[in-house]
Structure formats: structure tokens, C-alpha cells
Amino acid sequence: MASIQQLTVMGREIGFDPASVRALPLAEERFPDVSSLAIDVSGGCNLRCGYCAESMTLPKRPPMDRELLVRSVERLFEWSDPGAQLSIFFGSGEPLLQPESVKTVGKLARKMARKNSRGLSLFLTTNGTLLNARIIQWLVSDGWEVKVSLDGPREVHDRFRTDGMGRGTYDRIERHVRTLSKKIPERFSTTSVLCQGSDPARIFQEIAGLGVRTLEIVPAAAPPGASFLPGETEIDHYRAFILAYAKRVAKSREMPTITRFQTQLRRVLGIGNRQIACGAGRTLFAVGPEGGLYPCYRFVGLDAFKLGDLHTGLWKDAVQRFTAGCARPSTERQQCGRCWASPLCDGPCFAGAALIGKGSTPPGFCEMIRADSEAALWLADTLRLRKPKKLCGLAGIHLNG
User: Fold this and answer.
1) H helices within 193-337, ranges in order?
2) Looking at residue 356, what DSSP letter applies?
3) Residue 136: how many CB atoms within 10 A of its CB?
4) Which ranges in 153-219 belong to alpha helices (H)?
5) Rounded distance between C-alpha atoms, residue 219 and residue 229, angstroms
6) Rounded to the nearest 5 degrees, what angle is found at the Cα of 368, between the Cα atoms of 44 and 172?
7) First to last CA, the chain
8) pLDDT tens, position by position, 82-108
9) Measuring CA to CA, how many Å separate 68 from each of 105, 111, 128, 166?
10) Please, which residues have CB within 8 angstroms of residue 288's CB and are 6 or more apart in sequence?
11) CATH number of the domain located at residue range(s) 33-126+277-328 in this protein
């Protein structure tokens, strides 16, 4: 049984009992249990981002035709449990290269959800360059959850997020970020990639200044040695930033939410702790342009990770090999077993570890998780007795009265 860890965070001694937050073992026998679908609608992207993980690992894919899109939605409703909350994700490549397809899927899925009395969420991740007033209108009216990739200030964003001509893209998306922040503040967020030379404090300041209420900062995904990976300096800056953010949150009434930090705060309180990074290959599956089924969009087109197709369904043996292999729980990862923060971490992205890390966690991930965990432990310790109601609110726990 793990002993209580003693951590010193911002001059305070904090005791951390791993056993109190350790996730329950997975009931692997119940998987696959389909409730979410990722659709690779475009098969490509209009940008040439310098750190794009998909361009490093995935083959070229054609756009998906309408018949296959309709069949994908139908299969989600057929294969899922009648009581399950369903979700559909568009995030591979640039989905808005095929805006009418995205819109069609959303409307069809909403119609089927109403007919079958099912809960449904629609998610779109986009680089934002193809947004316009018409697209924004239907994203807002159709209830989409929208995430735009934005790396911070113009000079930072434009270093890597460039088009095919090598031009920066910040000026093309800034106004759309402001618009979406105003129209759907609770359903809009941004994601920023931390690279070498990036300053997380400046990233946060810039994005918060655009009115964004929810954002995430993630490390660039690449093999060790890549020139754009965040180094010790960037990781040190991130740790200083997230600790300072925790102090500001403790004093301030309202701050933009950093999703990774909020997740760690919930885990410190024992909420939502689990042993896997996501439901890929268990509850989430991706559909490729040929109708193949894969664990998530980051595996689309890779035959070694094909788990079935829309015609024959999921291949249980292939699913079990995946979940026992690169999608194994964090408790079965040697690297995780040596880390004090492992009970607060669900392990690495399966695709990142398998395709980029070659079995190991990609650089930067563990260091940022430990920084988030330290800051979350400090904030929980600070507010637990003095402001428990505020702590619950920050963790997304809604109290009556």
C-alpha cells in the first residue's frame, strides 16, 4: 500500500495519500461499449503546422462521402446502449473543409436523438481559418461545442500554424474567436500547443484577453529531439505559471478555466479518477473514409489499428488486443508506476505513446501533469477549510442552497 507523500508546494507542506484517490480497476469485460464516434470527414487539412502530429503519423485520406456519413450516424445509434449519452466528434484534419457534411451530420444526429429520446453532444475542433458568419450561425443554433486551435499571441501562433504558403493564420481567426466567445461562452474553448520559446503566461493573457472563458495548454507532440518541443525552460515556466494561476484563482472571484488544471483539481478531490486517458477503443471509435473503424481519429488509416468496419461491426479480438496493448491502463505502465502523481493521472494519449513515443510517454506530458497536480493540491489544501463552497464550484461540483 502506497504511503502518504509529503510535498512542499509554494512553501507549504502538503500531505497526499495516493490510496484516497486511486481509481477503481476497469471492468474490461464490458467493452466495447459504444457511445462516442469520431468522424474523419475531410481526410486532410488546409494548414501546414510545423508540429502537426497527424502529418507525422497518418497516411493521406480522401474526404468521406455522404452515404458513409449517414451510415456512421445510424450505426452509433444502433450499437449504443439505449440509455447512453451519445457524442460525435469532428477533429481530425480540418473538418470545415467539408462544412456541409459537418452540418448534415449534426442535423441528422439531432433528429435521430429526438426521435429516440437520446442525449447527444456534438463537438467540433477547428483551426478556425475557414469559419465565416454563416458557419458560425449554424454552429451556434445547432448547439455545437466548438474548440479553436490558437497558440497565443500573433508572433507565437504564426511561428507554426501556417498555411500552405507559409503564411501565419492569427489574423484570420482572431475575430472568430472573439465572436464565438460572446455568442456561446459556455460551449466555446481554445487549445494551445506549448512549444520551445512559448511562454504559457503570455498564452493565457492573450487568449483571456479575447474573451475566452475556457482554454487548454498542451505540450507539442513529437519524438525526443524535435526542435519545437518544449524544453526545461518552457516546462519551468509552465510550472511557475500554473502555480501563480492557482494563487490567483484562490483570491479571485472569476478566472478563465484551464481545463487540464480543473481536471487535476477534481482528481485531487477523488472525482473522475480513472486509469485510461480516454475511451478510445472502449467507448469511442473513429470512422475512416473507407468505412473502417479505429480507436480514435489519430489512428485512422493505419491497418495495424483497424478494429472493424461499418458493415461487419467491431472485431472483438482486435479491440481486446488494442486495450491490452497500447491502450492498457496506467497501472500497467512501468513508467507510471514510478511517478508520485500517477493516481492523479490517467496516463498518456494512446496515439501519442504508440505512434510518437514508441511505447513511452511523449516529452513534456508527465512534467506538465506533475505541475498541474502540485498546483491543484495546493489550491485544494488552501480552500478546503476556508472556502469549501468555492472549491466545489471550481471543481465543477454544483451544490444546492
Assistant:
1) 200-209, 232-251, 259-268, 316-324, 334-337
2) I
3) 17
4) 154-160, 170-183, 200-209
5) 8
6) 40
7) 39
8) 999 999 999 999 999 999 999 999 999
9) 11, 18, 25, 34
10) 40, 61, 64, 294, 300, 301
11) 3.20.20.70
Return the C-alpha cell found at 161: 500554424
333/324 Cα distance (integer angstroms): 11
* Domain range summary for the chain, segments of one domain joined by +: 33-126+277-328, 231-275+329-396
Which residue do the cell numbers 448534415 mark? 104
Q: Cell numbers of 250, please?
A: 484562490
3-class SS at 134?
Answer: helix
CA angle 261–266–269, rounded 5-degree value: 130
Taking only the tens place, the pLDDT of each residue in 292-331 is 999 999 999 999 999 999 999 999 999 999 999 999 999 9
Measured CA to CA, the distance from residue 156 to residue 115 in angstroms comes to: 46
Find out whether 244 and 375 touch, Cβ atoms under 8 Å.
no
Instruction: Give CA–CA dist 161/191, Å, rounded.
Output: 13
Distance CA 293, CA 314 (A): 7
Nearest partner of 371 among 200, 121, 169, 140, judged by Cα: 200
Amino acid at 148: V
CB 182 within 8 A of CB 160: no
Residues paired with residue 145 on neighbouring β-strands, in sequence order: 123
User: Is the bond preceding residue 329 a cis peptide, omega within 30 degrees?
Assistant: no
